[in-house]
Amino acid sequence: xxxxxxxxxxxxxxxxxxxxxxxxxxxxxxxxxxxxxxxxxxxxxxxxxxxxxxxxxxxxxxxxxxxxxxxxxxxxxxxxxxxxxxxxxxxxxxxxxxxxxxxxxxxxxxxxxxxxxxxxxxxxxxxxxxxxxxxxxxxxxxxxxxxxxxxxxxxxxxxxxxxxxxxxxxxxxxxxxxxxxxxxxxxxxxxxxxxxxxxxxxxxxxxxxxxxxxxxxxxxxxxxxxxxxxxxxxxxxxxxxxxxxxxxxxxxxxxxxxxxxxxxxxxxxxxxxxxxxxxxxxxxxxxxxxxxxxxxxxxxxxxxxxxxxxxxxxxxxxxxxxxxxxxxx
Length: 329
Prior knowledge:
The protein is α/β, with parallel strands linked by helices. It has helices at residues 6-13, 15-25, 68-71, 94-97, 100-103, 110-122, 138-150, 167-171, 189-196, 201-216, 245-256, 286-299; strands spanning 55-63, 76-81, 107-108, 129-132, 157-161, 179-182, 220-221, 227-236, 261-265, 304-307, 314-315. It has a single domain (6-315), classed as Aldolase class I (TIM Barrel, Alpha-Beta Barrel). It is built from 12 helices and 11 strands. Strands 1, 2, 3, 4, 5, 6, 7, 8, 9, 10 and 11 form an 11-stranded mixed β-sheet that branches. The chain starts with 5 loop residues before the first helix and ends in a 14-residue tail after the last strand. 48% of the residues are buried.
């Protein structure tokens, strides 16, 4: 019999319910994310993330386009949450993340979210539960998990985030989340402000990712190559090095470990407001892609995947003519 998820022990001891209550109390003057806007979301006030008390769920599906260890052969049970605490000008899901009026039609209670969580396991048969953009709904998601576990939910949980997360909120997820899948978007606060309308992204995201790594450590796979626990850091290459890829990769190698699994994403194409912004109004080119591969080679980061810029398929690259593959540790 497979080992039970760590959250079962928290559930059985009553600790999970204690954490749910503590998180819900923080919605009265919301400090769930680093914006700490202070909205009374328990009374329906709308926070800076454009979310209130109810949960906007844009879609639920068996997602087969994630990293191979996440999607596996049966797909990742992705629940896409509406609204966001960032305002990325190039967001490819801007209809979901930046249309609060539209998302009002998709708002549900935590009890109904629990039903969707069980649907991922019992009907879709996915490898895991993939919470996509969950940051601003952590209390409500935890309430839904509490109910779903009571009704037999047992899948590994993926926390798929932009990394603009509050460390104190993440600490309440210790032992609940099995796999953290954060973006590391920028290495410059000024660029983050220009492109995502967020102050202090870099120290906030780095502190959050450090906490994630403390909780789950390096990526662990089962016999079939599916992720069961650990950290995968995503990094989207932007045109004209707006993402500051080299500095971010150096931070991972030096402040976390060269063994950390990274997913280098080359899928950038102009969306949303970026279409009219010259620095962002083009896809990345092969030289920009290769430069990041070379950075990984120099830093000795060898665990993870690259993404092909044309097909968006993930692959394991050779770093040079002698062949140093991006391989599983």
